[in-house]
Amino acid sequence: METTVQTAESGECQDLAYNVFARSCPSRGTLEHVTGRWGALTLGALHEGTFRFNELRRRVDGVSEKMLSQTLHALERDGLVHREAQPTNPPRVDYQLTPLGREVSERLLTLITFVEGHMDNVLEARERYDETRED
């Protein structure tokens, strides 16, 4: 599962031990966790700081408790999110990005900002597309 890629920063080629395009490569699962709707939104929200579960659920509007829980477990397992349970009564659990998670979220936020900044173009394209399909 080795592939060669050119890095954007240096322009140099490097060999990677993983290939996300290979069906059995474990990097594919992590990519799905990061780029899925709830994973991307959760990582983006956590870039703002540490959140308790319900704070995060309010921040990521529309996510169910079950989906947020599953998303956080997957991101924690991938080493992107740190979960810290405080031994208080009632128990307090905080979620924050790990250094790796912060790096991933910064890249995601670049994409999110790009998409938000080009939504007028996207909406115009959708409108043109829909008009051609209505005939």
Descriptive overview:
The protein is α+β, with helices and mostly antiparallel strands and 135 residues long. Helices cover 56% and strands 16% of the residues. It is built from 6 helices and 5 strands. The chain has helices at 26-35, 37-46, 53-59, 65-77, 99-117, 119-134, and strands at residues 3-6, 13-16, 51-52, 81-86, 92-97. A 3-stranded antiparallel β-sheet has the order 3-5-4. A two-stranded antiparallel ribbon has the order 1-2. A hairpin with a 5-residue loop joins strand 4 and strand 5 (92-97). It is globular, with a radius of gyration of 18 Å. Residues 5-13 have low confidence and may be disordered.
Could you estimate the helical fraction of the residues in percent? 55-70%
Roughly how many Å apart are the termini?
48 Å
Q: What Rg, in angstroms, do the CA atoms define? A: 18 Å
Structural class: alpha+beta
Write down the overall mean pLDDT. 89
Sheet of most strands: 3 strands, antiparallel
Spell out the helices and strands N to C: EEHHEHHEEHH
Question: In which order are the strands of the major sheet placed?
Answer: 3-5-4
Total of DSSP H or I helical runs spanning 4+ residues: 6
Overall 3D form:
globular
Strand percentage lies at 15-25%
Q: Low-confidence stretches at least 5 residues in length (pLDDT < 50)?
A: 5-13
Count of extended strands: 5
